[in-house]
Specification:
Layout lengths: L1 E5 L7 H6 L10 E5 L5 H13 L3 H22 L3 H20 L7 H8 L1 H16 L5 E3 L15 H13 L6 E5 L2 E3 L5 E3 L4 H12 L4 E6 L20 E3 H9 L10 H6 L4 E5 L8 E4 L8 E16 L9 H11 L7 E3 L3 E6 L5 H8 L4 E15 L8 H8 L7 E4 L5 E7 L3 H12 L1
Parallel strand pairs: 1-2, 1-7, 2-4, 3-4, 7-9, 8-10
Antiparallel strand pairs: 5-6, 9-10, 11-13, 11-14, 12-13, 14-16, 15-16
């Protein structure tokens, strides 16, 4: 069985929804995972924000606007009175549910219920569309099998058990449809896998049932070797290892959600990145094998980085110092991206600044602290294992004309990470590309 995930742009209009059948073969056994229709989740976030701030009239107008878009969608999507009637009843139900939440005390629980409606709408609309065309399919409600624990981590044994039970109910069916992004939490409440969670859903499903392949369909032909928005001569990468793909996804390659690599890697299920606008393009295959050894694969950049520099004579010959520093970040649930140390100083970077002031206040107990905002991490990914000579030198030589704030090398066999001011990002990407590729 294969898992095929389609993002919001792939179901962004009636034409796009109809054209899914150019890719999906109903006679092949597969689970299709759909995101919400493009723009829906952002609109639902706005509605939730209005409810949260007590702006019921504003929320009402936003609900009306979004519902009108869906009314146009079902008019364009369905060709029969029966299909349009089904579609109309569906959107009436979901939008009445959203509007009814204004009568309750609005909490994060209600917000997550609202955010789940986009995927519930898109999957059921496509299910109805297939039915109208005489193509059998079965809905697999993600809320019946997708579960996270108290730490927001997926419970794969539970997912596997429930999915196998659901699939066993319709053994002769070949085409299944499920929602990306949404799940239930440890308390049984509706929750979600955070933004980009549809990729994660596909990977978790594929891993749980040991699928033949997980396909992530987007609007670009695979993962490129640099950012095509700023470098005109990028090329798609034919093959990547799981480790290389994880590095690129985390450090800025937007085509793939970083978390989605890890379940597939753990259960050795290959992931293929493909283009809905060009289904015949080869895309990128992510697997244990990866591409040729001894090569540099790609360059990515992650913006919105903040660097924190701590200078303290107490570090000198002291054990336990770094542990106490890291405990501060752990208390504020703030992940660290890069770290470099010397005998009397430690520098590290974060991308979540929601607790920056509190973190700095506590860190100042250990020494002198300075903070640099608007930084960028440029990550060069490839085979940087210890027996490879000269690769790191090529990377640094390519940007020797730019002021480098930090360098991380040796912590992984797969990347060299460089911190620069954001204003130097484009020049760094282009210089590295010209030097390496």
């Amino acid at each position: 069985m294969k898992i095929l995930k389609f993002g919001g742009t792939s179901v962004g209009s009636a034409d796009r929804i109809q054209s899914l059948l150019d890719i999906v073969n109903p006679s092949e056994r597969q689970i299709v995972v759909l995101s919400a229709v493009a723009g829906t989740t952002n609109a639902l976030v706005e509605i939730s924000s209005a409810f949260l701030n007590g702006k019921k009239e504003e929320a009402k107008e936003l609900i009306i606007d979004l519902k009108e878009k869906y009314e146009q969608l079902i008019h364009d999507l369905f060709k029969t009175d029966t299909g349009r009637k089904q579609g109309k009843e569906l959107i009436d139900y979901h939008f009445n549910l959203i509007a009814s939440l204004s009568n309750d005390l609005f909490t994060p629980t209600e917000e997550k219920i609202i955010l789940a409606q986009g995927e519930l709408l898109s999957t059921t609309l496509w299910h109805f569309h297939l039915s109208e065309k005489g193509i059998p399919s079965v809905l697999l409600p993600a809320l019946d099998f997708m579960k996270i624990d108290e730490d927001n981590e997926p419970v794969i044994p539970y997912i596997k058990e429930k999915l196998e039970q659901l699939l066993a109910q319709t053994p002769d069916n070949t085409l299944y449809i499920s929602q990306g992004y949404i799940c239930r939490n440890a308390f049984g409440e509706i929750d979600n896998l955070r933004r980009g969670g549809s990729d994660y859903t596909a990977s978790l499903i594929g891993s749980a049932i040991q699928a033949d392949e997980i396909q992530i369909w987007t609007d670009i032909d695979g993962m490129h070797n640099n950012d095509p928005r700023v470098v005109s001569t990028t090329k798609p990468i034919a093959e990547l290892s799981f480790d290389e793909a994880a590095e690129l996804a985390y450090f800025g390659a937007k085509i793939l959600h970083p978390q989605s690599v890890f379940p597939a890697q753990r259960y050795k299920v290959p992931v293929r990145l493909l283009n809905t606008l060009d289904p015949n393009a080869k895309g990128t295959l992510i697997s244990e094998r990866g591409g040729p050894a001894g090569t540099i694969r790609a360059i990515a950049a992650k913006d919105g980085i903040t660097a924190i520099h701590i200078h303290s004579s107490r570090m000198l010959l002291a054990y336990g110092f770094l542990r106490r520093i890291f405990e501060i970040f752990e208390r504020y649930k703030t992940p660290i991206d890069m770290i470099t140390t010397s005998e009397v100083a430690v520098s590290l970077t974060i991308d979540n600044t929601s607790n920056l002031d509190d973190i700095v206040r506590e860190v100042e107990d250990f020494g002198r602290v300075s903070v640099d905002l608007d930084q960028t991490i440029v990550c060069v990914v490839g085979d940087f294992s210890a027996n490879r000579h000269g690769y790191a030198a090529r990377v640094l030589d390519a940007i020797k004309h730019l002021p480098i704030r930090m360098v991380s090398y040796g912590g992984s066999d797969y990347n060299v990470s460089i911190l620069l001011d954001n204003e130097h990002k484009i020049e760094a990407l282009r210089s590295l590309h010209n030097r390496i590729f």
